[in-house]
Structures are given as C-alpha cells and as structure tokens.
What does this fold into?
Amino acid sequence: MCQREGLSLQRGMNFGVGGTHSVILMSLRPNAPYHDQVLDGGFTLIYEGHDVPRSQKMPNPKLLDQPETFPSGLLTENGKFHRAAQEFKNGLREPERVRVYEKILPGVWSYNGIFHLADSWRVQAQKRTVFKFKLLAVEGEEDFTSPAPANPVRRRVIPTVIKLEVWKRDGGKCAVCDATDELHFDHILPFSKGGTSMTSDNVQLLCARHNLEKSDRII
It folds into this structure.
C-alpha cells in the first residue's frame, strides 16, 4: 500500500496525494472512523471525519468538535475533504478521486478501489459536531490523467465479512499456486455473468498473475 502510494501513510485521511487523488484508510477496530456502508445501485461509503489528536492537554478528543481548521487557519484533512466535496456539489470542480484501503487483519490491507467524494456535511453526535463524507464506489478510473466521467459506472464492493471468510478459508494464499503476495479477492463468476459478492462461495484469493490470466480468458 505505502509502496504503491509512494509515501508512508500515517493518517486515515490523506488529501491530494501526488496532486492526483486522495487516500482513505479504513479499520475494523472499535470506533473506527467510518459510519456506514450501504448498497445503493453500487457501494456507498459514509466515512466519519477525524478528531483532534490525543495529547496530555486533550486526553479525550471525543469531547471536542472535529476541527475544520488548525489554530493557524490552515485546513485540516477534514477541511480539505469538506471543501472538495462542497466545490463538487456546486459544480466548481470534478469529484475528488479517492483510493480506499481497508485493514481486515493485522498486517493485511485490502484495496477497495476508486471512490468519488460526492458530499459532506456536519452532524451532532453526543454533544459535539462531526464531519460525514459520502463516497461512491466507481468502476476503473485508475488512470488519473483522464478526466473523471460525468456519469461514472457504479461499482459493488465485496463486504468485509466475506473477505474475512475467504481469507480464512483460503489460508491467505492464492487458490491456484499458494502464493502469499500480491493477492486479489476474485469473483469466481463475474458480476457481468450473474455472480455475487454476497457469499464467500463466489469469491476466492488469486495472486496477481493468476488473476490476470483469468481476466484474459473472460469474454
């Protein structure tokens, strides 16, 4: 993940990586900073913003509103994502493309693909204000030199619980050659042919080579 992005990712929200896209990290830990995941003609992620950093002066960040700016007036990551979402809603820019990675096990990260940052808002939560960000999973768009399409093709995402079942069943190895690196969650029967991501029976682990070989055979 860090090698692909060309930097050490220490934060959950990383705006404007390389000037071409942003990165969001998800986690299964309790109180992880994403609120909900729903199917809505594709996959929609509602991600919660970040709190002020924990410190000796502020041992419980949950008591404070999530910040939009630093004391200096510069935007926090919350502020950067919020500004981009509002500018997109107002027709002032293309949607920010966001790569989403999910930590499904210690040391194991799953790439969830490209999302469009579509909306943002603030809500009251336990006597404080937090940010919410709406991201839509879209097909392709890994080529950041091309403009984002006006009507992107929505994409489904394999649910986390299914990924965990498949990882355990396949032993963290390619189902074909037992490779343990560059693994992909692969649909045995593709969506285009009526396959589903809602059951582990239709998902397997494949290494990059065998995943590519399979894709080349599908017409």
